[in-house]
Amino acid sequence: MNRRWLAYSIATLALSASAVALPAGVASAAPCSDVDVSFARGTGEFPGLGITGTPFVNSLKSQLSDRSVSTYAVDYAADFTQASAGPGSRDLVAHLNSVAASCPSTTFVIGGYSQGATVVTNAVGLRTPSSFTGAVIPAAIADRVEAVVVFGNPLGLTGRKIETASATYGARANSFCNFGDPVCQIGGFNAFAHLQYGTNGSTAQGAQFAAAQVRS
């Protein structure tokens, strides 16, 4: 299968799906929340949390209903070339640094879907084709990142995942890759599998993991 055609097809489907997703965007529960959740959307999605980030964040907020939770939609192009993941990680790291400086008690959950997962992969210090234009979370605030959750991470095509590749974040990470998803699974054959994380229970499972990490 032609890789450029596959990337275009998946992104086009994601864009169509995002048009009917619940409204998403940057929202803040308080100037300094207990937990700040950042999420990077996938390729071709409209700005905001996206078709995967929206249900993930909603589920996490529900599971952390006793705490104040702010949200941030990573501001990046999410373009078809995938090169925007580098600048995306710079935006994510800048946001974390800003909140960390202003809110010393706030902890973080970070997540991403598809190219947004690459944004997160870059930010936690793992090399990807776009990492040389990206940024890495400073060691000074690394301990405040309670959980890292990614869906359809292209890192899987190299036989790696954050859980096993990152000495710093591995124990706090959870990666979801649907069977047959060609974006994260070597030999993947089903482009529609890449669009089902928000509807097949993965986002709820990811939120449950993140909530448990926050409470631990």
UniProtKB/TrEMBL annotation:
Keywords attached to this entry: Disulfide bond, Hydrolase, Serine esterase, Signal
Record Pfam families: Cutinase
Signal peptide bounds: 1-29
Family that this chain belongs to: Belongs to the cutinase family.
Database matches in Gene3D superfamilies: alpha/beta hydrolase
Stored InterPro entries: AB_hydrolase_fold, Cutinase/axe
Taxonomy, superkingdom: Bacteria
Full protein name: Cutinase family protein
Organism field: Rhodococcus navarretei
